[in-house]
User: Which sequence fits this backbone?
């Protein structure tokens, strides 16, 4: 489109809207407006991809508002009494922002614009039903609800336009798959309507466009109202990103002392604050909430020190930096958003809560702390800078050397080249099918099953749903009394459970509880914790950071869903325990890091110097020589030692003692798939469990004695790629991740009211046995495969190994690259063993725990008691034997197994565990009882703790605590 034509974009709008544009100061259309307004004004569907701040919202809404005004002006009154347009966003906060932005347009154009979501008052809901607005701003979940309302359903019949904001965010989530069916349900009411999708970044525009407009298998060539246009303004060309691994300078040593951290972290904090000071308003993105909290805590302490004596030596006023993430209360979030927008804050540390288009005013720089992991995430975040300005978005990625810097370099280059990851759409998610079958029944009271099937398969993610699978889901719902199935007429109708189920499951977000965090000292709530974290790790004595302060858990109340905490006055004496989940690194990014390492190794082998190699890379990537040189130090040492370098074309397996590491730069999902495959097959060969830990560049296995790199090499070279999926299904059979997912899926099918009723291991074993072979089990497997694994790419890798395209080499020892892995988040370390009060808390907690004592000599005496009441050398009061086992208080099964004559395999395992426990107690007395009473410490690990022969009691409890934390960290990796 020529510039002349582009400048005429506003001429496609009517005189009323053009006059309003002049009043609003819109004299020149932006790039997306020049390209998109003409087709949108003509009523065509469109996917608009453009950087944040480039006027995407107005691009979509100006033609929509113009259409509504034009229809009214032509007749002098609203031609249709209902809702003319829906504006759907993934966040309530975006709804609030959108309402603020549209208020002026509504007043100027005499249009009624309203917001509807879960917090909308009953009065406002009634008002909207009786007098529908022209434009309704809502969320995907609220659309589900209003489709079933008798009055609003009539109003929805007049919908002519639907705008879906941040469509990329929904395309990769089940709630997005749910929305696509919701739009097909809306189409049954309103007929065809214009669909407009907005996003800052989309890696697969064609697929996301089809996700938006639907058509399924009935309209595969985008005929009729399923056609769409793609308008794309390159975000990469408008982003200027630099990668920086901060240099440690003299004053970082003093700063580290004040922050109770190491010099590296001190240099990061100093550099971030310097960047904030150099700009007017800076967003500081981090990848996990715990990193946000830790960084916020350091910034807070530094600000306090600056107020006292100007620690950083600049002489400038301290910078004001606050914290923003999803676990903070709504009032806290809104407060910091407003303060940042008003200029009262210089910087805002945030997670993905700020990634989408929440209006926080003008941002002139973005800091990304740590690699952003994905190209899309980097573009989305850096795109926040330059908001509402016709300028390049500028950002700095602060890295931590090694993998982190090389990965950030690869992502920055790929962002500049526009190589965005494709959307990871949930295809044929059966719990979404179940949810939407009930939704259609709620809409229409009674409906033929064929109509429901056609409605669902008209949505793009469900175009390949087969009739037999659909029928299985219907029968499951009927069996759970969520609808009536009349098999003679093939009709579906409401049952007694339909209404309750539907309104309890408006969202496809997993029904996971949120625990309130309550500070007993101030008697106030300070935030929330996810149930997954509480279930997995939180216990009395554990420490974590929230709102920039450190807290110790005093009590976890499951009934009240409350975690009671006390503040820690001196955080320098504590080790924060909270470790978050990594954002997965895609295969192409990890492969580029592997390719870089291979390129460096070749250059060094050819006689080049590390300095020359670093300089060459700095010329090609947006990074300075010193940061590159620091990132390559492990690779340089690796080559100097003569080890083979792992690349995207070479796997390197290395081992030491009971650890084997597979160096594989193929990203999180491929490596997770490889890890589960190898752990299962090697474990099957050896008859022992194999532990695993995964990052994008290496997999570390804890193996039985006698297992080394050659075993893993043989498995990799002999595994048939065609059997990969079957192997993985077997490997996942007893995995906690499958049980957790199965429970969530079962809840969405109405099979269990709420998955959390099965406490402990979520009732997973019984649920697995009961649901195997059902659509619920099939969906749980599909979701684990979709979310955590990558079967096609892993199969392709195994095939490449077989045909020699990818080589495998072994190293006789641990290598610099193999041991250079990173943790899940930025770690803020404190002096080791500065934990006296933590140890005291652990000691008291274990002393007050209960234990089951059982005599394995006479087999008659058992007693449940608190650990503190156990004698130094327990003995049976009936027969006087000291062969007393210390078991979990609910573990009567082990005692029964010892009593049993002919034992099956499971009973034999339980009996052996009881006998090992009794042997430990007989040999080591109460110390063995204490060790085995700790979380995740059975007889095997208790023996390891005892064998450390700690004379210092604190050291003994420190070993116990270390084992508990190791158990919490690796629990999901063990069968």
Assistant:
């Amino acid at each position: 489109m020529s510039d002349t034509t582009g400048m005429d974009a506003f001429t496609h709008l009517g005189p009323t809207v053009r006059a309003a544009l002049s009043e609003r100061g819109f004299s020149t259309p932006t790039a997306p407006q020049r390209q998109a307004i003409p087709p949108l004004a003509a009523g065509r569907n469109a996917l608009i991809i453009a950087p944040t701040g480039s006027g995407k919202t107005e691009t979509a809404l100006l033609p929509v508002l113009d259409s509504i005004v034009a229809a009214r002006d032509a007749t002098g009154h609203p031609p249709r009494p209902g809702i003319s347009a829906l504006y759907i966003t993934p966040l309530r906060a975006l709804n609030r922002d959108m309402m603020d932005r549209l208020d002026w347009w509504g007043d100027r154009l005499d249009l009624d614009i309203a917001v509807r979501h879960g917090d909308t008052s009953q009065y406002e809901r009634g008002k909207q039903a009786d007098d529908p607005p022209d434009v309704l701003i809502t969320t995907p979940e609220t659309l589900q609800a209003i489709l079933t309302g008798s009055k609003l359903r009539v109003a929805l019949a007049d919908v002519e336009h639907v705008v879906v904001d941040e469509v990329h965010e929904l395309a990769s989530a089940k709630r997005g798959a749910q929305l696509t069916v919701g739009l097909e349900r809306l189409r049954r009411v309103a007929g065809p309507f214009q669909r407009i999708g907005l996003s800052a970044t989309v890696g697969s525009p064609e697929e996301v466009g089809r996700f938006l407009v639907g058509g399924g298998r009935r309209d595969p060539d985008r005929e009729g109202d399923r056609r769409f246009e793609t308008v794309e303004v390159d975000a990469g060309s408008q982003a200027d990103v630099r990668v920086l691994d901060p240099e440690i300078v003299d004053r970082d040593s003093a700063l580290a002392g004040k922050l109770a951290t190491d010099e590296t972290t001190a240099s990061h904090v100093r550099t971030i604050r310097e960047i904030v000071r150099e700009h007017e308003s800076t967003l500081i993105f981090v990848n996990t909430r715990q990193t946000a909290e830790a960084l916020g805590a350091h910034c807070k302490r530094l600000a306090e020190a600056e107020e006292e004596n100007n620690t950083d030596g600049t002489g400038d006023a301290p910078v004001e930096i606050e914290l923003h993430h999803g676990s903070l209360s709504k009032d806290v979030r809104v407060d910091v958003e407003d303060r940042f927008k008003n200029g009262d804050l210089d910087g805002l540390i945030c997670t993905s809560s700020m990634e989408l288009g929440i209006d926080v005013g003008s941002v002139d720089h973005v800091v990304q702390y740590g690699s952003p992991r994905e190209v899309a995430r980097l573009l989305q975040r850096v795109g926040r800078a330059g908001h509402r300005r016709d300028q390049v978005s500028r950002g700095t990625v602060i890295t931590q050397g090694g993998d982190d810097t090389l990965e950030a370099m690869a992502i920055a280059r790929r962002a500049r080249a526009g190589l965005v990851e494709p959307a990871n759409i949930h295809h044929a998610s059966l719990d979404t099918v179940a949810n939407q079958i009930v939704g259609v029944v709620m809409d229409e009271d009674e409906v033929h099953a064929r109509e429901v099937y056609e409605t669902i398969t008209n949505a793009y993610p469900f175009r390949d749903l087969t009739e037999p699978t659909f029928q299985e889901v219907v029968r499951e719902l009927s069996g759970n009394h969520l609808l009536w199935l009349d098999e003679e007429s093939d009709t579906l109708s409401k049952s007694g459970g339909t209404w309750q189920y539907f309104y309890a499951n408006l969202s496809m977000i997993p029904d996971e509880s949120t625990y309130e965090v309550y500070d007993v000292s101030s008697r106030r709530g300070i935030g929330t914790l996810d149930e997954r974290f509480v279930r997995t790790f939180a216990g009395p004595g554990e420490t974590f950071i929230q709102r920039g302060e450190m807290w110790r858990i005093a009590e976890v109340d499951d009934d009240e869903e409350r975690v009671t905490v006390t503040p820690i006055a001196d955080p320098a004496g504590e080790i924060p325990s909270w470790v978050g989940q990594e954002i997965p690194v895609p295969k192409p990014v990890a492969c580029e890091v592997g390719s870089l390492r291979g390129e460096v190794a070749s250059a060094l082998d050819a006689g080049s110097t590390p300095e020359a190699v670093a300089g060459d890379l700095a010329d090609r990537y947006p990074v300075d020589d010193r940061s590159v040189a620091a990132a390559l130090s492990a690779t340089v040492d690796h080559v100097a030692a003569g080890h083979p370098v792992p690349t995207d074309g070479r796997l390197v397996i290395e081992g030491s003692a009971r650890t084997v590491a597979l160096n594989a730069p193929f990203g999180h999902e491929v490596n997770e798939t490889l890890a589960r495959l190898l752990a299962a097959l090697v474990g099957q060969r050896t008859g022992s469990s194999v532990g695993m830990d995964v990052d994008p560049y290496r997999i570390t296995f804890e193996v039985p004695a006698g297992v080394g790199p050659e075993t893993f090499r043989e498995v990799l070279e002999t595994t048939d790629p065609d059997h990969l999926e079957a192997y993985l299904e077997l490997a996942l059979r007893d995995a906690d991740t499958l049980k957790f997912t199965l429970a969530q899926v079962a809840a969405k099918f109405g099979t269990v009211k709420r998955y959390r009723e099965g406490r402990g291991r979520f009732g997973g074993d019984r649920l697995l046995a009961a649901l195997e072979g059902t659509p619920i089990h099939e969906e749980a497997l599909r979701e684990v495969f979709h979310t955590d694994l990558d079967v096609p790419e892993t199969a392709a890798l195994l095939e490449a190994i077989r045909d020699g395209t990818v080589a495998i080499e072994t190293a006789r020892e641990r290598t610099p690259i193999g041991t250079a892995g990173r943790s899940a988040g930025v770690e803020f370390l404190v002096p080791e063993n500065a934990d006296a009060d933590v140890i005291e808390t652990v000691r008291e907690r274990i002393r007050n725990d209960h234990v089951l004592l059982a005599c394995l000599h006479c087999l008659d005496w058992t007693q449940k008691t608190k650990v503190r009441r156990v004698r130094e050398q327990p003995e049976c009061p009936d027969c006087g034997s000291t062969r007393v086992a210390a078991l979990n208080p609910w573990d009567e099964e082990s005692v029964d197994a010892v009593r049993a004559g002919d034992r099956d395999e499971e009973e034999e395992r339980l009996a052996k565990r009881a006998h090992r426990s009794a042997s430990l107690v007989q040999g080591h007395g109460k110390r063995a009882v204490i060790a085995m009473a700790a979380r995740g410490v059975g007889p095997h690990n208790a023996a390891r703790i005892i064998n450390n022969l700690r004379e210092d009691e604190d050291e003994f409890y420190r070993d116990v605590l270390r084992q508990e934390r190791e158990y919490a960290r690796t629990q999901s990796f063990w069968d």
In short: Residues 430-504 form a domain with the Arc Repressor Mutant, subunit A fold (CATH 1.10.10.10).
